[in-house]
Amino acid sequence: PEVILLSTPPFERIRDIKICATNKLPVLVEKPLATNMREARRIVNYMFNKNLLLMVGLNFRYLPVTQKYIKLIKDETVGKPSYAKFVYERWRDGKLNYLNKYPLRMDHPMLWEQSIHHFDLIRYIYKSDVKNVYAQTWNPKWSMYKHHTNVFALFELKNGMKINYLGTWQGSYKKLNFEWRTECEDGVIIQKEQFSDLNYNKKNSSRLIKVPLKKITMWRYDSELLLLDFIQSLKDSKKI
């Protein structure tokens, strides 16, 4: 093989990465990269020292709704962003046949399997890394998961943005409740569905303006773009 798409459970990730590196293979790895920061740093440093490309498959970046969200902010359609609220409330039945079962027993399943996507999008869309964060995780008494399925976080980004985040996998209502609302100088941007329904509103107006989005086949379209990005990164790294 020329590359490895690594989608094994994350518990022995450093072992799997070393096998790939021994064979001098670049790796596109499924998130989470690791289940703790110490091992994540070990993996990154290991691949860096081996001069091999390592990329984490965070596919939500490639969705049309994500790209349009970025454009609204870049074009300052409703002015510069100031602060935001990100809510993801879901009942996730981890025992369903088509789902991986390891999240049922891993530490911080919501954080490492779901919130990681949201935190990446926050950094990606607002074009800034995190300066400060206050966070708590916990597990409701009725949870089917061994460890914490609720995540609360308050972020301050280096560019001054502040984001209030709440995510859960064990909400008591089975319908997904999603809202990503960004308050800007001249209005607001609101995403009402996880992969669609993007709107903006001019200040002093009660009318939401819906943003047209390209129709796609979910999980296929974004995965194709992720793979193309990985291939391009390989080509670019060979030029250095």
Outline the secondary-structure elements.
Layout: E1 4-6, H1 13-22, E2 27-30, H2 37-49, E3 54-57, H3 64-74, E4 81-89, H4 109-126, E5 130-138, E6 150-157, E7 162-168, E8 177-184, E9 187-193, E10 196-202, E11 209-210, H5 221-239
Helix pairs in contact: 1-2, 3-4
InterPro entries: Gfo/Idh/MocA_Oxidoreductases (IPR051450), GFO_IDH_MocA-like_dom (IPR055170), NAD(P)-bd_dom_sf (IPR036291)
Protein name: GFO/IDH/MocA-like oxidoreductase domain-containing protein
Domain GFO/IDH/MocA-like oxidoreductase: 68-186
Explain this structure.
This protein is of the alpha/beta class. It folds into two domains: 4-58 and 219-239, NAD(P)-binding Rossmann-like Domain (Rossmann fold, 3-Layer(aba) Sandwich); 64-210, Dihydrodipicolinate Reductase, domain 2 (2-Layer Sandwich). 30% of the residues lie in helices and 28% in strands. It has helices at 13-22, 37-49, 64-74, 109-126, 221-239; strands at 4-6, 27-30, 54-57, 81-89, 130-138, 150-157, 162-168, 177-184, 187-193, 196-202, 209-210. The strands form two sheets. Strands 5-6-7-4-8-9-10-11 form an eight-stranded mixed β-sheet, covered by helices on one side. Strands 1-2-3 form a three-stranded parallel β-sheet, sandwiched between helices. A hairpin with a 2-residue loop joins strand 9 (187-193) and strand 10. Helix 1 (13-22) runs parallel beside helix 2 and helix 3 (64-74) crosses helix 4. The longest helix has 19 residues, at 221-239. The radius of gyration is 19 Å and the shape is globular. The model has no long low-confidence stretch (mean pLDDT 96). This is GFO/IDH/MocA-like oxidoreductase domain-containing protein. Residues 68-186 form the GFO/IDH/MocA-like oxidoreductase domain. Pfam families: GFO_IDH_MocA_C3 (PF22725).
